[in-house]
Design a protein that fits this description.
Blueprint (H helix, E strand, L loop, with lengths): L1 E11 L4 E11 L2 E3 L8 E4 L4 E4 L1 E3 L7 H9 L8 E2 L8 E2 L6 H10 L2 E9 L4 H9 L5 E6 L5 H8 L3 H15 L5 E3 L3 H5 L19 H15 L5 E4 L9 H9 L12 E3 L7 E2 L7 E2 L1 H10 L3 E4 L7 E6 L2 H11 L4 E5 L3 E9 L5 H16 L6 E2 L13 H9 L1 H8 L4 H6 L11 H16 L15 E4 L12 H9 L3 E4 L2 E5 L2 E2 L7 E6 L12 H14 L4 H4 L9 E6 L7
Parallel strand pairs: 1-4, 1-5, 6-9, 9-10, 10-25, 11-12, 12-13, 13-16, 16-20, 25-26
Antiparallel strand pairs: 1-2, 2-3, 5-21, 7-8, 14-15, 17-19, 18-19, 21-22, 22-23, 23-24
């Protein structure tokens, strides 16, 4: 398809375009310099906002834990139904929607790329099956490697190069994109009914600390030249006083950063930004974290914003989910994935009048508003942990409108309201900054060179919103903004119009992005990684319930895909 988007009000932060009226030309799925206007389909975007397609760096949408969440929560399906149309399939789910429903709802908001951040390597096959089943949007998934026995043993013995070789093989074998670390050391401790207390607590049986895991995998990430930093869910998540651990985690890799290139991404930071020593006096540590981030260039964050709604919490942090089960009394699923990772699922409702819940709601917004550079923090809910991704337009309105925040503040717990930092914050995001935290910044952090911008040669992933920034006051017209960002005028994916006026008009199969190392053969037992493979084969015979040959995911298995070629010296004889 050849498209000409005329007279749009363009926000393209990676190119410094801030509300300029421009034409965008599209041909063969790419943005081009010009097209033959007589042979192009013309979209009149006059008085409309044009942005690159949205990117979500952290959203739990596929794999065994998400599917377990669907099975655990039949009540989640009852009132949120996606009807069948001549173009779309039916589906259900509020906080854990079915695969097709997930793709449709992201596309309706103008999103075109999502990242599933929690994949046990042993369950990679199922994860990729669900990602392939999620239409329209492109995808990537992050294997859980922080408490993986091989990693712990290599790091314990200071074998960083060997660890890098193993991680490289794992990325190719599982078709992963980034190194995910969850509660480093805590997941292994959970196998013995324990947890780790801080960065320097020893992990049972391995004589290694969370600090050494984070630093070791940060060094591995540098050796492998991966496009995204280590993606870290901190120790002590969800516990009063954990903001200190979060700052220490960022500090521990300061010396590993390269100039202004980030070395670590702290995910869903709201859950890791608590002051206090009990649930009775828990309060916000957002100001201290923001001060640290404002002074340093080696860290990025995403919000993990809480929404007052019924949702489903799910994470590889098994010990935290057990704690949440004890706190809530709700039903609970716990799962250990052989020697790789743990997980837990607990239904949850965030209530406005609950002091802790209201404090958490405030913390997410405080982080986004107190961190001065929007390139360092990104809009997420840690879907579905803080709330469903369909709440993003509401968060946009809170970021852009102090009046919207004040209206929400009036309805929350009084004690939380008096302690909130929000009344003292005047800042209101601009559309340019919204474009950063919802697409440009996330694409940059992920190293996705063809996403998040509208340069010639970029993927033709474009969102057009029916709102004229020259005729509204975002502070007053926040409901208009929320409505516009909920249902796009157009979503264009790979140069095809897939959404028009909030309705799906065409479905495509999105691509899966994964890392392919140029020096690493795709054969299961490639000779140039003989040491890694020999060790793997021996361990599979000793420990696993699956065969080594069934562990490797062939490229042909995952449907449309885009391998990202990375040059690295590992696995070279």
């Amino acid at each position: 398809m050849t498209l000409l988007i005329k007279n749009g009000i363009v926000y393209d932060p990676l190119n410094g375009v801030d509300g300029e009226v421009m034409d965008i030309c599209v041909e063969n799925g790419r943005i081009v310099e010009k097209v033959d206007e007589h042979n192009a389909q013309i979209i009149d975007a006059s008085e409309m906002i044009v942005m690159p397609g949205g990117v979500d760096i952290h959203t739990h949408v596929a794999g065994a834990e998400v599917n377990s969440g669907r099975l655990l929560r039949p009540e989640d399906h009852v009132h949120d139904v996606e009807p069948k149309t001549p173009i779309t399939r039916s589906g259900v789910g509020h906080s854990v929607p079915s695969t097709f429903t997930t793709g449709y709802r992201y596309a309706r908001m103008g999103y075109t790329m999502i990242c599933n951040p929690s994949m046990p390597p042993l369950e990679a096959r199922h994860t990729h099956e669900e990602l392939e089943d999620t239409p329209i949007v492109d995808k990537a998934t992050f294997p859980l490697l922080g408490d993986w026995w091989f990693v712990l043993e290599y790091l314990r013995d200071s074998l960083i190069k060997e660890c890098a070789e193993h991680v490289a093989w794992m990325m190719v074998a599982t078709k992963g994109y980034a190194i995910k670390i969850v509660n480093p050391g805590g997941l292994e401790a959970w196998g013995f009914g324990r947890n780790v207390r801080d960065l320097d607590d020893l992990v049972p049986n391995f004589n290694i600390t969370p600090r050494e895991i984070v630093r070791g995998l940060c060094m591995v990430n540098k050796i492998l030249n991966l496009p995204h930093t280590i993606h870290v869910h901190t120790n002590r998540l969800g516990q009063p006083g954990n903001y200190i651990t979060t700052i220490k985690t960022m500090e521990c890799v300061e010396d590993l950063a390269e100039s202004s290139k980030p070395a670590i991404h702290i995910t869903h930071c709201q859950f890791s930004a608590f002051k206090g020593d009990s649930w009775q006096n828990v309060r916000s540590g957002a100001e201290e974290i923001a001060k640290y981030v404002n002074r340093h260039t080696h860290v990025t964050l995403d919000m993990g914003q809480v929404i007052f709604t019924d949702t489903t919490t799910m994470t590889a942090d098994g010990p935290w989910q057990y704690t949440l089960y004890e706190l809530s009394g709700n039903k609970w699923v716990n799962h250990d994935v052989e020697v790789e990772t743990s997980s837990g699922i607990v239904p949850f409702r965030y209530r406005r009048k609950n002091y802790v819940h209201a404090t958490m709601w405030s913390i997410g917004l405080e982080l986004a508003l107190l961190i001065e550079d929007p390139w360092k923090i990104y809009l997420t809910t840690d879907h579905p942990n803080g709330g469903p991704f369909t709440s993003y337009p509401r968060i946009v309105s809170w970021l852009m409108s102090r009046r919207a925040r004040e209206r929400a503040l009036k309805r929350i717990n009084e004690k939380a309201r008096t302690r909130s930092l929000l009344p003292s914050i005047d800042r209101e995001y601009t559309f340019y900054e919204i474009a950063i935290v919802t697409r440009a910044g996330q694409a940059k952090a992920l190293g996705l060179k063809n996403k998040g911008h509208l340069s010639v040669g970029a993927d033709a992933d474009i969102a057009i919103y029916n709102i004229n920034p020259k005729e509204i006051d975002p502070s007053k017209d926040y409901k208009t903004i929320r409505k516009a960002f909920s249902r796009v005028a157009y979503t264009i994916k790979d140069g095809e119009i897939v959404v028009k006026n909030g309705e799906i008009v065409k479905t495509l199969s999105g691509k899966t992005y994964w890392i392919n190392f140029e020096s690493l053969s795709l054969e299961r037992d490639s000779s140039n990684c003989s040491r890694v493979v020999a060790d793997l084969k021996r361990r599979f015979r000793e420990y696993w319930t699956v065969e080594f040959e069934n562990y490797f995911i062939p490229e042909s298995y995952i449907g449309p895909s885009t391998p990202i070629s990375v040059k690295t010296g590992v696995c070279e004889e």
